[in-house]
Amino acid sequence: MNRSGVQPLDAEVGKWLRKLAPNVRVKVLLNKAEGMHDDASGSLMAAMGEAYSLGFGTPVAISAESGLGLADLYEDLRPWVETAQEALLAKRAAANLREEESAAVETELEFRVDEPAGSGLENELSYKGELSSLEDISINSEVRLSLGDTDEFETKLNLNEENEALMSEAELKRVPMQLAIAGRPNVGKSTLLNSLLMEERVLTGPEPGLTRDSIRVEFEYENQKIFLVDTAGWMQRKKLKEGPAALSAMNARRNVQRAHVVTLVLDAQEIAETKRSMRHTEAALAQWVVQEGRGLVVVVNKMDLLAGSEHARLRSLVMKAVPEEITKLLPQVTGVPIVFVSALEGKGRAAVMRHVNESYRLWCVRLPTAKLNRWIRKVMSRHPKGGEGHGAKVRYITQVKARPPTFVVFVSGQGKLDDTELRFIASALREDFGLVGIPIRVFQRCSKDQRTVE
């Protein structure tokens, strides 16, 4: 498929595949998608929603010319290839076992023929009985080996829509998580990296600007492979001139944009002294991360400097001010995780990784279409307009992609849903399905226009 959308011939090919090749897994690709990812009109989401109607799951938008989207395509195809390889190996193992057992039967018969025994009839019956029992063992062993794996393979190939929509924990852990640590200079980003790795991997110190280049480290946490990136201090571009600082800032932005989850590090001591939780730079970074559709975890570092009874009041003010500021700054994303840590003392490491893993899991979540449509009928009945304001009526809803979760509401009638109704649907999705702390996107598909709410 390309930008022209689903054509009649595409639908015919889809019917042919479902009828004549039901056991073949199909992935729909939207080619020539360059420039459509940043289209504010939502044309890409509308095209993906239209392609979803073919019945082959969530399509992948790519650009064969520029390579855009090929990483997402690889992540989608990799579990299929691994499953097919496992099934092929199981079939080969079953064939080898069958050959070995056949050879064992022949050897046993040759050995028995050379033995002097009773009458020929007794020997013949004995040989036939032993041969029958050995063949039964061989067949049963083959069934246990091959049919178990084959059934599992066929079950995976013939997954219904509900099972296909849910990403299992094992499949989720196959894809490495991209985690970035970002924040202003000298807030303890490198110290936090060392704390998460539980080793002195990078250089730290009281001087700001020690990290010039982004540092990428691979490690595992609870069987989840993670690529952790420690970025240079985040500074406004207008304050930078040409030179190493400008290159460091550009590299930091590039790594944050590639990340799946971003940890924004704040300085607790500075918050207590200035009586404000976030500067303009940090607020702009948090908003940019959410707009890019990434998971966000806020880490308030240097809480060890506010330890003790003499700092109890300041500590309480910091722990109250940060959540309030995040709620005002990001009203469209409720429940952003906030962790208070001391990276220098190694306190709070487990809490940080727990919230990071949970944000990544929600960021990758997929909801079945059937479940969504049962839900949308109930939730719109709670809305004052009932989903039929201005001549528009909600027909159905589907999730067209994950990472972040993106939904398309199909609307019929002469009108369209207004922004308040789309925000109502987005809020209800977060509340009813527990999609808190991550950005979700809701588009509407109607005859004339498309709108989106994050």
TrEMBL record:
Keyword Ligase carried by entry: no
Key words of the record: GTP-binding, Nucleotide-binding
GO molecular function: GTP binding
Annotated ranges, domain G: 179-302
CDD domains on file: EngA2 (cd01895)
InterPro entries: GTP-bd (IPR006073), KH_dom-like (IPR032859), KH_dom-like_a/b (IPR015946), P-loop_NTPase (IPR027417), Small_GTP-bd (IPR005225)
Residue ranges of every copy of the GTPase Der C-terminal KH-domain-like domain listed in the record: 366-445
Protein name: GTPase Der
Gene (UniProt): LOC112274577
